[in-house]
Amino acid sequence: ALAVRVQVTWDIGYLNISRDGLSTWRAIGANGQLPIPPIYVTQGDVLELTAINHLDMPVTLHAHGLFQRNSTYYDGPALITECGIPPGSQFTYIIETRDQSGTYWVHSHYRMEGIDGLRTALVILDQDMSLLDEYDEDVLLTLEDWGQEPNNDLMERLQVTPF
């Protein structure tokens, strides 16, 4: 099969949420959604993930578990491999999938943004679909753990410097 360019745009912004029905706080989503829908590509495809930052702080993204051959400059850790996308700016990550298949995740690597919602599953379907008749269905299950306050607030209250 021929590789294709899969274009995904995340309009990253704050959302007011209530996960427990008791308290409401500011979380981070993409395109007005939380959780952010999974990204599906086929092995060999090139994922172009454009992140448009509407937050009041920088954003970095990391494709967790993927080989970063020839792309370590945007592996995600803020101020280590990249400076981050400034508020009001955008950046397109080019993610090659030729060498891997499986389930991974994309998440922010700036402060506590990933924990506050800026994350999703990245599913890279194997080009060899010979195992399709070996099972009935695929189920993608992601879990969240929410506290009673946003994680950046918690870190400041505990006087912990987030990474």
Folded structure, characterized:
- With 163 residues, this protein is mainly beta.
- 4% of the residues lie in helices and 34% in strands.
- The strands form two sheets. It has a four-stranded mixed sheet with strand order 2-1-4-6, with no helix packed on it.
- A hairpin with a 7-residue loop joins strand 1 and strand 2.
- The longest helix is centred in the C-terminal third of the chain and has 7 residues, at 151-157.
- The chain is globular, with a radius of gyration of 17 Å.
- 28% of the residues are buried.
The value of Rg in angstroms is 17 Å
What is the helix fraction of residues, given as a range? Answer: under 10%
> Mean pLDDT, rounded to whole units?
85
Q: Helical region count? A: 1
Shape: globular
* SS elements, strand count: 8
- Strand neighbour order, sheet with most strands: 2-1-4-6
Low-pLDDT segments, ≥5 res: none
Largest sheet: 4 strands, mixed
Given helix and strand content, the structural type is mainly beta
Query: For the terminal residues, how far apart are their CA atoms?
Result: 41 Å
